[in-house]
Design goal:
By secondary structure, this protein is an alpha/beta fold. Among the domains are: 53-296, 3-Layer(aba) Sandwich (Aspartate Aminotransferase, domain 2); 407-479, no CATH class. The protein contains 16 helices and 13 strands. It has helices spanning 11-22, 42-54, 67-83, 98-116, 134-142, 159-165, 188-197, 213-218, 258-261, 287-324, 350-359, 385-406, 408-423, 426-436, 450-458, 462-476; strands at residues 91-95, 124-128, 145-149, 170-176, 201-205, 235-239, 251-255, 266-268, 276-278, 329-331, 339-344, 365-367, 372-376. The strands form 3 sheets. It has a 7-stranded mixed sheet, with helices on both faces. Strands 10-11-13-12 form a 4-stranded antiparallel sheet. Strand 10 (329-331) and strand 11 form a beta hairpin. The N and C termini lie close together (7 Å).
Length: 479
């Protein structure tokens, strides 16, 4: 049981304790993470830390109390409107992250539909199978039905399937620019045209792409249309704390028309404490995140973002070229920007290759359908890309040697695993998951996860996977 110390501890002792704990984490400035952290440089990190510290106590809930925050937020919104080619009529808000931006866009669509389509009894949103789960999360909280439509072999949404899914209950169409799993930009022009044809709202999730696609374009990279230049796009979400290289959490949601933004607001006038009004989901809002985001934008400027985009793009192309020279590997889909998913041809196990890379100090997310390793390539990765490529090739050779040694035992084990998971009682499977979930309580990042992902991939029911993850989270948050 964790309890407050009987007496306060000395500041120096606490800070040393923090440094000791932090030393057990993956180093966020080493550029050995291919997700979670968007590292630019030590200079930018120091600036952001100082700017954040200046506003560590302020609260952006009330824009009247701290006019400097209101000014910075408006300037940030103006910058984002400019790079995403929003019309003069556009308006938006700064949020705590992509999930909140997406939540607000979905809430806006729901409340807009309530006013103009009061006959709806079960509003639906339609999104690609590759869209971020934040849309499913928002729909879950808001009581909406989610309709997933498939993607093509190149990773973009099947527009014909999307049109076929539209019903009288549909209120919102969604596309990604790009999708997080595979880095593919959906055909936003086609999706927006459908929205106009059926009088629907259209949201573009540019949370991961909003601060790199515009600068790739400025650098001469040809990309599909994705922003407010596309007629029919009614809202866009874009994260600052991804390729904007600002500290967590800072994101923006923009609407083509100011009148549309009003549907995301919450106002309650009957409270004894006074009229309560909130533009976003959050009540208290971090002033530090706003000040740090503004400072980073000012520091990098257009030239800084163009240079960061150039480094990320060239690093991505270097990795793609290297993967093409390893016959056992391939890139999933047809990525447009700086996100890659690396998969392996059978019989190699890409998760075990990921484990071999983890043993060499790399942190990569595992994906499914198909099994792959996820890479979000940033400017910071330019300095480590050659080492990564060498380690990737070595990891593939290691997995090939392991397979040659295991031979028939590996194939038999896999068959037994699939058979066993199909017939064992669910409570037994969950027991196994609890054993595996002990890694969640480790003081260090896990180095071997292939067994866990392999087991989940072999489960016969999606519901079983969700229960396993539920057990995993419950154990990880145990106190």
């Amino acid at each position: 049981m964790y309890m407050l110390p009987p007496a306060g501890r000395p500041a120096e002792e606490i800070l040393n304790d923090l440094l000791s704990r932090k030393s057990q984490d993956t180093d966020s400035s080493s550029s050995r993470l291919w997700s979670l952290v968007y590292y630019h440089s030590e200079e930018l990190l120091r600036l952001a830390q100082q700017a954040y510290a200046y506003y560590i106590s302020e609260n952006a809930l009330n824009p009247m109390a701290f006019p400097s925050l209101r000014r910075m937020e408006n300037e940030i919104l103006g910058i984002v409107k400019s790079i995403l080619h929003a019309p003069a009529s556009a308006a938006g808000t700064l949020t705590s992250g992509g999930t909140e931006s997406i939540f607000l866009a979905v809430k806006t669509a729901r409340d807009y539909a309530r006013r103009y389509k009061p006959h709806l009894y079960q509003p639906e949103i339609i999104l690609p199978a590759s869209a971020h789960p934040a849309f499913d999360k928002a729909a879950h909280y808001l009581g909406l039905k989610v309709v997933h439509v498939p993607v093509t072999s190149t990773g973009e949404v099947d527009v014909r399937a999307m049109e076929a899914a539209i019903s009288e209950q549909t209120i919102l169409l969604i596309g990604s620019a790009p999708s997080y799993p595979h880095g593919v930009i959906d055909p936003i022009s086609d999706i927006a045209a459908l929205a106009q044809k059926y009088h629907l709202l259209c949201h573009v999730d540019a949370c991961v792409g909003g601060f790199i696609l515009p600068f790739l374009e400025k650098n001469g990279v040809e990309l599909p249309s994705y922003d407010f230049r596309v007629e029919g796009v009614t809202s866009i979400s874009a994260d600052l704390h991804k390729y904007g290289y600002t500290p967590k959490g800072a994101s923006v949601v923009l609407y083509r028309e100011r009148s549309l933004r009003r549907y995301q607001f919450f106002i309650y006038s009957g409270w004894s404490g006074g009229i309560y009004a909130s533009a976003t989901f959050s009540g208290t809002r971090s002033a530090g995140a706003i000040a740090a985001a503004w400072s980073v934008l000012q520091y990098l400027g257009e030239s800084g973002y163009r240079e960061a985009a150039r480094l990320a793009w060239e690093t991505t192309q270097r990795i793609r070229s290297a993967v093409s020279k390893i016959p056992e590997l391939y890139i999933v889909g047809n990525p447009h920007a700086t996100i890659l998913a690396i998969a392996a041809h059978a019989p190699l196990d890409i998760y075990r290759i990921g484990d071999a890379l983890a043993q060499r100090g790399w942190f990569l997310d595992r994906q499914q359908n198909p099994a792959s390793l996820h890479l979000t390539v940033t400017a910071g990765h330019a300095r480590v890309v050659e080492t990564f490529i060498q380690d990737l090739a070595a990891a593939v050779e290691e997995e090939k040697s392991r397979m040659q040694r295991s031979g028939w035992r590996r194939r038999a084990g896999r068959a037994l695993l699939r058979t066993g998971l199909a017939v064992l009682p669910e409570r037994w499977i969950r027991g196994v998951a609890r054993l595996i979930s002990r890694t969640a309580q480790s003081n260090q990042p896990p180095r071997r996860t292939a067994a866990l992902y392999g087991m989940m991939a072999a489960l016969p029911k999606q519901g079983s996977v969700e229960k396993l993850v539920e057990d995993f989270l419950d154990k990880a948050l145990e106190h």
